[in-house]
Amino acid sequence: MRRTAKYAGIVAIVLLMASRLSWASASVIKDWSSTGGHPINKDNPKDRMYLVKGGDKITFTVKAEGVEKYIWQVNKEVQNGAEGNTFTFTVPNEKGIWEIHVIAVSGKDKAHAEWVISTLMKEEAPTFFDYFTDGKWTNRKQTDPWGRTLPEWSQPRGIRHNTTRCFLDAGKRGSTSVTMMAPCNAAYGTWKWRCVRYPKRSSIIFGNGGFSAGTSTPAYLYFNLSGKTTGFTANPWPAENITPSEWGGRKGEWLGQTVIRTHDGWYYRFIDGDLVPNTLARENTCSNCSHVVIKSFWNAHIDCIEVYKNRYLWPGERNRVRYGQYITHFHWTYRPRRGFYPVERRKGIIVAGHEVTLKEIANLLGRNDLFKYDEESKTALCSTDLVVLGGASLIIKDEKLRFHSPAPGGCYFRLKNGAEVRIINSTVESATAEPFYWMLTSDLNFERYKDNREERDWGNDIVNFAGRLIIRNSVIRKSGWLLIHGARQLVLENVKFLEMVNVDKGSYGPSGGLGNRVKFRKAIGGKYAFQLFNRYTLFGDPPFMIRGCIFSGGSEPANISLIGSDHIGKINIYDTDFSKAVLSFRKHPRWFQWFSTWPSEKNCPEQRWFNGTFNLINCKLPSTLKVQTDRAYVLPKYYLDVKVVNKSGKPIAGAYVSVRNETDTGYPPENIQPVVTSFVDCIDEQLAWPNSTKWIKIRDIDNCIDPQDIPAFLMKHAICNTPGYSGEVSDIRKDEKGRITHFVDRGYRHFSAWKSTKTAEARATFEYDFTYDDDGLLVRYTKTRVCYPPTKGWWGWGRKSKYVYTLKYKRENGHILGYSITEKWAGSADKKVDDLTWYVPIKVKTNRDGHTPLPSDGLHTIILTDYLLDNSNKREFTYTITVEKDGKRKVIKGVNPGPEWYRPDPNKPTYTVVVVFDK
Asked: CB burial class (10 A; 0-12, 13-18, 19+) of residue 369?
């Protein structure tokens, strides 16, 4: 017993000594101060935030106990050699904000202290500012460097954030989210913050005028800007996400984030100055805001929050133009280790700023041997590659850019993912016998995020341009390889592409071991002057336009390849001369939702493709159109000109002219107005996982269709007969007058999930009912949807959804000139899906000269389809024209559009249908 008591006493003494040693070793910062320089808004040495001047030397000091070492950081960067309890910092002679942070370390224990100094004047300061320098997020007593009170954050949820380390730490909350918010009314401008990359799952969402930073694998990257409840949201599609390893950061490293939203709605997201791939987007649904909201999960860390209302702080402005090396092509290899390695490097002028001009490039570069600008003639001579980085923009207006290649191989005009180039009233050409080559990011010219790194260990190649190319009233001479894959905005208006050359500059090497991707590259590759692949949702005003252009080859016809994506929108090309080109058309391969793979022919052959529909409106075409694949459809179309005269040949004004396709009502007359779309809830078009669902857009009604033809049109273009589905229309019912009153569209779709040999079946049934009024006009129809996903998702199993469409008509003198459709979801809240939108007129009136309106009146111009061409068949269409005036009526049948209708000037008809009103 005594021995036991003796040992117990010894253990107690040891534990007490260990406890005291542990307590004594804990680092504690007792005091802090800063001295020196020319401070403003600093009342005493303990002030943590104040203004300084460039060149000031500021000494920061902490007094602490139990410290083994000190770690000093400036803007999260460790300062080598700064090891004591004092640190002297020389303020750079520039505008900026600097965070001075010290960590007092004792074993695993750390204590933190922080200062923030700035050279920005009050009018230059962030509208919203919080670095959590005081270690608090509420009950703040200190002021920011400009003497303003710090934000007071509120927290709707009970779990508390920790800011004692001078940054926001959400802590290890599991899947529980933590939300906090502070007032901020910025809807446009610049948002900046820093976050830490962690290996565990984490997501930070700044809503209601904020931003987010996903730090999981994979990570959803959001920018959510809204009013109090709803509004602007711009986020990458799942297929566009990048993982943290692609950010270029290491575990525990702080990453700088910047989001810019311009007043015209364009949204940019940068990480450490590099545009995040595929995040350039445009949203216009919110013009005001109330708060910055942080919604965080897991162990998220965030700091250095700055919001600049109505101001744009573009990354790269300090280094707008430089000359250096860039990587042109990558190949995947397992040696020396697994990753992407560059196989071609070139040197060029690299543009990183916003709205850079040719004159600026010459002035900032200062290398006449590489880039020379003549101000009198406004001509630039470029003797090397010209590279525009993602998020940067180059403006060429009323100027001439001439590429002068000093050696064989030509100069590259390289536009990277998310770049913007605007060429207005200008000329871009080669000044030598060697052409210049467009090199936009594409499947055949892919890039890597932060591709200045020598290798990449994770993630897919970037194959979308996802940028903006706008060329108007310009000449592009002696160029080749203009491949536009997945643009965000594309406008080619009144552009002459002359002396185009056919060339293959593509990279066909392995990509991450994904053999199907390599197969696809080879399938679409070849020698091209121009290739368009519209697989992205486009934005802008307008989002897409090819009008009034000339595509002409030099010694041989220009090879032009068009790859369509009907789920994005049919390609409409207007008033363009292709007579000296070879036109080929292809369908569009699908992608899985999260992986850039080509679906397996064995497991899911029916979902490998989207249809590609190409409308060539008033275009001068070559003698042969090459439709290379099935599910690709070409429809040459022409403007209709009708002149109504009396027996004496005198023009009749105010006569009503209507047109009907007498061959197939599924291809009705139309006009220049964009096709109106509506939301339809259906199976995900890019399904990757069995329970994946989302809203998609499809085209229910083409413009200018007679409302009485809507039932037949919907039946012909039923959902389950669209790409990816197999099915049939059944149970067709008609009334005594032969009008369709009911039909059912039943279909299914097989698919296989990633890395799975099993297939699943998604079934969908759509039931339509139609109601007519006493005059025989369609006034209402309903669509009832029942979907059976492969697994029970949020839809519920076999849940019904009902949509009600109500038609209203525009009338004049008893004639129907147009109609609108109001779409509602007949759910518990009777949610209104689509606002009232007037469709184009189905009848137009003749002008004073007796003619129907010209294309300059886009709302009333009538366009007729000549024929439909696929890879196995050609279907000609003829039309019936009906003219009415003062109770009189004249009908002309068998009108057959053709190449003789082509108009070099769209507003000067070359073929006129003359209707003599002799009855």
From this structure: exposed
